[in-house]
Amino acid sequence: MRLIPILIILLGMLACSKPDSGTPAYKNPQLSAEERAKDLLSRMTLQEKTAQMHCVWNDKATMLLDSAGNFDVEKARKNFKDGLGQVGRPSDTKGGLDPYQTALLTNAIQKYFVEETRLGIPVFYHEECLHGHAAKGATSFPQPIGLAATFNPSLVEDVFTLVAKEARLRGAHQALSPVVDVARDPRWGRVEETYGEDPYLAGEMGVAAVKGFQGDGTFKNGEHVVATLKHMAGHGWPEAGNNIAPANVSERVLREVFFYPFRQVVQRAHPGSLMASYNEVDGVPSHANKWMLRDILRGEMGFGGYVVSDYYAVRELADREGLFGNHVAANGDEAAKVTIEAGVNIELPEIDCFKNLDSLVQSKIIAESLIDELVLKMLEYKFRMGLFDNPYVDPEKAKTFIGSEANRKLAHEAALQTITLLKNDNQVAPIKREKIKHIAVIGPNANRFLLGGYSGEPTFFTTVYDGIKQKAGDKIKVSYSEGCKITTTSGWNQDKVEVPTPEADRKQIKEAVALARTADVVILAIGQNEQVSREAWSKEHMGDRTTLDLVGRQDELIDAIAATGKPVIAFVFNGSPLSFNNLVKKVPTVFECWYLGQEMGNAVADVLFGEYNPGGKLPITFPRSVGHIPAYYNYKPAARRGYLFDDVSPLYAFGYGMSYTTFEVGEPVLSNTSIKIGDSINVSVTVKNTGTVKGDEVVQLYIRDKVSSVTRPVKELKDFKRVTLEPGEQKTIEFSITPEKLSFYDINMAWTTEPGEFDIMVGNSSRDQDLKHGLLTVSRQE
C-alpha cells in the first residue's frame, strides 16, 4: 500500500516533464522572465553573450542594410551570426522613415534574429523620445523644460503614455528618456532637455514620465517601452556651463540634489534602464564609477534594470579622436574593462570598445561572471517585453495611429499648460476682438518651424503667424514681418551656425516698424532657436553660451517696436533662461513659452485671444545677467549677500507665473504643530479665484529646517498642486508632510530627520513675498 503514493508522485513528475518534449525552458511563456533569462543564459556561448552587449546605429547602414536602406539578410548573416543586443534608431534610416516604413524595417531585421540565429534572441530597438518620438510623422510635444512649467505630473504621464505607444507601434522597445538632470547652469545648452533646477520637481516629473513610458511595467499590451533614466549624475552643473565638463560637487550635493530625482524615480517608478553621464565627479567619469553605478544605484537605490552607456562615452574614457579623452584608460580594451567593472551593461551606439570582449574574457582580463551578470538583466527585459513570443509589430496600426489628428488634442493641451505669463501691465492681454482690426505679427520666431532638440518631423505644425491668422478670422487683418534674424542657418542637427549682417537686420527692423505703425497691436515672437542653445557634442557642433542675452539685434528690434507707442505683446521661445531685461522694461506683456511642440501657433493664439488662461510656472530661475549665475532659488543662507551696483534678486523666480485672473492663497493650516520624529502631518491651504475668469493656479509647499547640524537651503520645494478654479470658486488643497520631506544628510552623512523647528511655507512662487508661513516642531521619540 505504501508503494501507491510513491507511484503517484513519480507519475506526476513524469506528467509535468512530458509537455516540455525537449523545448527549452526559455521558450516556455508560462515561466517568469527571470527564469527564462537564466535558462537562456546557461545555453549561450561566450560569443553569443558578448553580442548582447553590442549595438549598431549609423553602422547599420553598412552592417544590416543594402545601399537602398533595405534589410540585407546576407549582411546580417555575415556580421551577426551570434546575435546582436540593440539597433539604434531604426526610424532614422535613409534620413527618416515614416511609421509604416519603420515598422516594415524593424520586422524584417527582427525576423532574421528570431528565426536564423542559433537561439533566436530578438534584437532591441532604441529610439530618442525626449518630447515625442524623434521620428518622421510622430506627434511632437513641448520640450521637457516646458512640460515642467505645467507643474502637472498627470499631464506628463499622459504625454509619455502616448509617446510610448507611437514609438512601440513602429517597432521600438526602449526610449532614451526621460532626462532628470537637475539644471543648475542656464549657460548649458541642454537645459531644454531637463525638468529644471529643482530636485523635487525633476523627481515628480521623472516618475510621471517613466510611468507613462512603461505603464504597469508588464508591457503586455504592446503599447509601452522601457524607459531610460538619464544622465547619472551631475550632468546639469558642468564647469563653466560647458557640456560634459566636470561636475565639481561634493558628495552631499550629489546625494541631496543630483541623486535625489534618480532615487525617487528608481524606487517609485522602476525604470528598466538608466544611462550613465559623460561628466566626471571628483576625478571619476560616471562610466567608470563603481561607487555611483553599483554601490549607490544598484545598492542603495535598489535599481533593478540595466545601464546603457551614453553615445561614445566608453571610448571617451580613453581618447576619442578629434574631441577629447578622459585618459583613465589607455585604449578601447582598457576602457571596456573599466566600464564593465563599473556596471555598464551595453555600449552605445556602435560596436567599438566592447568589440573584443570575448577575447578579453578568454585572456582572463574580464571575468566571465561579470559578462553573465550584465547580459542576464538585458535578456530579462527582452522576455518582459514579450519579444520571444510576439516579436513583430503591425505596420497598418503604425500608419493609422502615429501622428494622427486625434493625437493633436493632447499636444495642444500640453502646449497650453506650458505657457507662462510673466508680465501683463494694464491687462494688454488677452486682446479684445471688438477693439482690434489689424494685428502685426513680428519677430524672428513669428513664422518659424521651432521644436528644439531631439525632435522629429511632425505631420502637423502651426507657426505663431499661422495660428493667429487662423484664430483671427476674416474680420481682423493679420500681417507678418520677420523683423530680424537670430541665425541665417537652421536645424538643431546642423553643425554650421551663421548670423545675419547688421545691415540686413536693420533693413528688416525698418520694415517691421513701418508695419507696426499700421497695426492696432503688435505680437512680438522672439527668443532663441535650436541653433543657439543646444547639446554641444563636438567642436563643430557647439551650443553652450557665455551670455544669457538675446542673440543678435533682437534688442534693437524691441527698442524700435516699443518706440512706435503701439501695444506690444511678446511671446518668447527658448530652451534655456534668458536675461531679457530690456524686453521686460519696454514691453507691457511677456509670455515665456519655451518650445511648445507642433501645436505652437494654435496654443499661442488661444492664449492671445483669451480662449485659454495661462497658468504655467517657471521651473528654473531667470537671472538678471550671466554674472548672477548660479541663481537657483534653493541656495544656502550665505549665498546671496548682494552685489555692488546690482540687485541680487533674480529677474524672475522659480515657481513664478501670472494669470488673467487673480488668486488668493490662504495661511497654511497644520493638522498638528508638534510631532515626533517619524510621524507625518497634513497641511491644508485654501486657494480662491478672486478674479473674473476661470484659471489655473499652482499652489506650492516649501520647507526650511531652521537649525540643523549642517547648513540647509533657505527653502526647498516639497510638494505642489495645479488646480483649476472658476471665478469666485475656492478649494482646499491638502499636502502631506512625511518624514522623507523633513529629512536630509546630516553631519555624519546619514539620511535622517533632526529634531527642531521647521518653517512651513505655502504660496504661488518661491519668492518670499508670495509665501505664507506656519511652524512645525519636531521632537525625538521618547
Give a structural overview.
The chain is an alpha/beta fold. It folds into three domains: 23-401, TIM Barrel (Alpha-Beta Barrel); 419-628, Rossmann fold (3-Layer(aba) Sandwich); 663-779, Immunoglobulins (Immunoglobulin-like), CATH 2.60.40. 30% of the residues lie in helices and 16% in strands. The chain is built from 24 helices and 26 strands. The protein has a seven-stranded parallel β-sheet. Strands 10-15-14-13-11-12 form a six-stranded mixed β-sheet, with helices on both faces. Helix 8 packs parallel to helix 9 (199-214) and helix 20 packs parallel to helix 21 (554-562). It is globular and about 80 Å long. Residues 1-20 have low confidence and may be disordered.
Briefly summarize what is shown.
With 782 residues, the protein is an alpha/beta fold. The protein is 30% helix and 16% strand. Strand 4, helix 9 and strand 5 form a beta-alpha-beta unit.
Task: Describe the structure using short key phrases.
6-stranded mixed β-sheet, 3 domains, 782 residues, globular, Immunoglobulin-like, alpha/beta, Rossmann fold, 7-stranded parallel β-sheet, disordered N terminus, 24 helices
What is the fold named in CATH at topology level of the largest domain?
Answer: TIM Barrel
User: What is the approximate shape?
Assistant: globular
Total count of domains: 3
Number of E-state strands:
26
Radius of gyration: 28 Å
Q: What low-confidence regions span 5 or more consecutive residues with pLDDT below 50?
A: 1-20
Supply the helix-strand structural class.
Answer: alpha/beta
Helix % is 25-40%
Name of the CATH architecture of the largest domain: Alpha-Beta Barrel
